[in-house]
Amino acid sequence: MSLNPQQITNTKNELQANFELSGLTRKQVASDLQISLTKLDHLMTLTQESLNDPWILRNYLIEKVEDKGEKPVPFTALTGDWHRHWFLNSHLIDARQMSAGDN
Q1: Per-residue pLDDT for 103 more than 80?
Q2: If you compute the radius of gyration of the chain from its CA atoms, what whole number of angstroms results?
Q3: Using an 8 Å Cβ cutoff, are 78 and 58 in contact?
Q4: Residue 22 in contact with residue 64, Cβ under 8 Å?
Q5: Is the pLDDT of residue 102 over 80?
Q6: Apex 96 CA angle, 78 and 94, nearest 5
Q7: Record's InterPro entries (predicted)?
Q8: What's the CA gap between 66 and 60, in Å, rounded?
Q9: Which of 21, 22, 28, 47 could form a disulfide with 64 if both were Cys (CB 3.0 to 4.6 A apart)?
Q10: Which pTM value belongs to this model?
Q11: Distance of CA 24 to the CA centre of its chain
Q12: What is the phi/psi pair of residue 4, to 5°?
C-alpha cells in the first residue's frame, strides 16, 4: 500500500506532533527503538524503505504520549489493526523489530 501525497504530508505531521507530545528527545526515541538517528530521520520523513517501521514508530509514540496522560494526535492513514493489513508483518511490528540498517 502506498500513500498519496496528502496522506504522506498528514502522516509526517502526525508523527511530528506525537513526537512533540511525547516529550522525548530524538536520542531517547532512537535508543528505545535501537535505531540510529539517521534511521529515525528517515522514519519521520517517511523515506524509510520498510513498511513495518513507520507502524512501529507510530505505536511507540502513541504509547509514550498515553504514558504521559496525554491524548495522542490521531493518525489518518496509519489506522486500523496492523494485523489485518496483508502487506505488513504484524509479528515484527508487535515485537518492535525494526528493519536492519538506516534505510
Answers
A1: no
A2: 13
A3: yes
A4: yes
A5: yes
A6: 70
A7: DUF2316
A8: 10
A9: 22
A10: 0.95
A11: 14
A12: -80, 170
Q: Cell numbers of 86, please?
A: 496483508
Q: What share of the chain is helix, strand, coil (3-state, %, to 5)?
A: 55, 0, 45
Residue located via cell numbers 513526537: 19
Grid cell locating 23: 516529550
Lookup: cell for 83: 494485523
Look-up of cell digits 495522542: 72
Contacts of 36 (CB under 8 A, 6+ apart): 30, 102
Question: What letter does residue 83 receive in the DSSP assignment?
Answer: G
At residue 94, the 3 state secondary structure works out as helix
List, for residues 22-41, the tens digit of each pLDDT value. 999 999 999 999 999 999 99
